[in-house]
Automatic annotation (TrEMBL):
PROSITE patterns: TONB_CTD
Protein name: Protein TonB
Organism per entry: Saezia sanguinis
Key word tRNA processing present: no
Sequence ranges of Polar residues compositional bias: 144-154
Length: 237
């Protein structure tokens, strides 16, 4: 039965399909004047390169330079101190009472001359008396006191301070002077003050620069203390 059925089936027909009508062409596009072809746009500038972050270089650790060694100072040899031998000082023998009793020279020239004359006469008499008594050391050890009355010494008078004149200051200052064997005033001390410092200093500063005839023992000059009174009087300036 199956075979009979298969024989009754018609073979398939091929149907050709044709498109009817004409192809409709699209309307012609309106022709527009040809525009000038635009120039090609310049290519955009490339973006600037993004700077890469630069890592800061770490500074190399600087090794400290050791300071140069200080030169070791050489020890300075200490100078050998030579023992200083003080020069022998002249031994002053105790002067007889004549030197202490020597009349002092005053500021007045007339009084100075009279005192010097009496001083010389007393010393000459004492030395002559010693020689007359047969004392062998009378002439050799006769002591002559210092003097400041010799005219050739040209010792100036102490100036009268102007302030003392205005204040009506008067008085007598007695200076104790150590006269050296060279005739200089080695030391000047105020033995008796006049009562006014200005008068005392004027006398002291002036007598400090005086020249003296040194004391002598026989013919040898010696150091000796000597009293010098200086009188300041407004009636006899």
């Amino acid at each position: 039965m199956l075979a009979a059925a298969r024989s009754n089936i018609e073979p398939p027909k091929i149907i050709s399909v044709a498109l009817l009508g004409s192809l409709v062409a699209p309307p012609a596009a309106a022709q527009t004047p040809a525009a000038s072809s635009p120039e090609p746009a310049a290519p955009p500038a490339p973006p600037p390169p993004v700077p890469q972050p630069v890592e800061p270089q770490r500074p190399r650790p600087v090794q400290p330079t050791p300071p140069p060694p200080k030169p070791t100072p050489r020890p300075t040899p200490r100078p050998v101190e030579q023992p200083v031998t003080p020069p022998p000082q002249p031994v002053q023998e105790p002067a007889p009472a004549v030197s202490e009793a020597t009349p002092a020279v005053t500021e007045s020239a007339a009084a100075s001359t009279q005192n010097a004359a009496s001083n010389n006469s007393s010393e000459t008499g004492s030395s002559a008396g010693g020689a007359a008594r047969g004392d062998p050391s009378g002439a050799e050890n006769a002591v002559t006191g210092p003097s400041s009355s010799a005219s050739y010494l040209n010792n100036p008078k102490p100036p009268y301070p102007q302030a003392s004149r205005r204040m009506m200051e008067e008085g007598t200052v007695i200076l104790r002077v150590l006269v050296s064997a060279q005739g200089k005033a080695n030391r000047v001390e105020i033995k008796v003050s006049s009562g006014f410092a200005r008068l005392d200093q004027s006398a002291r500063q002036t007598v400090q620069n005086w020249r003296f005839v040194p004391a002598k023992r026989g013919n040898t000059p010696i150091d000796m203390w000597y009293d010098v009174p200086v009188n300041f009087s407004l009636r006899n300036p």
